[in-house]
Design brief:
single chain, 107 residues, mainly alpha, 6 helices, 48% helix
């Protein structure tokens, strides 16, 4: 189970922090097969935005990227953060790897 400090590195939402602290997660240990890194192979973290009429309109109007992202999320896009959190919760990666790839969330 992650500590409060670890959970706070991947989310700022107090409810998500509490939920994550009650969720068993994996930690990288290392062995001969992985070169003592704790990871083997690669795992994609994707953010795919479907260009809807609303998104096209926002782009044409020169909207700020955050406004475009909010519209995309409303229409079902999963952010990199959400994708990586899903990998942590499914035991496919670790909080340390999340932070290495995406950084601490409040940075």
């Amino acid at each position: 189970y992650p500590t409060r400090e670890e959970a706070s590195m991947v989310t700022t939402d107090p409810e998500e922090i509490e939920k994550l602290m009650k969720t068993p997660i994996y930690r990288a240990k290392g062995c001969n097969k992985c070169g003592f890194q704790g990871y083997k192979g690669r795992l994609g973290v994707y953010e795919i935005m479907q260009i809807t009429k609303e998104i096209k309109k926002l782009i044409a109007q020169g909207a700020h990227d955050l406004e475009i992202e909010e519209a995309a999320v409303r229409n079902g896009m999963r952010t990199l953060h959400q994708s990586c959190m899903s990998h942590i919760l499914n035991g496919l990666t670790t909080i340390d790897e999340f932070v290495r790839v995406l950084g601490v969330v409040n940075e």
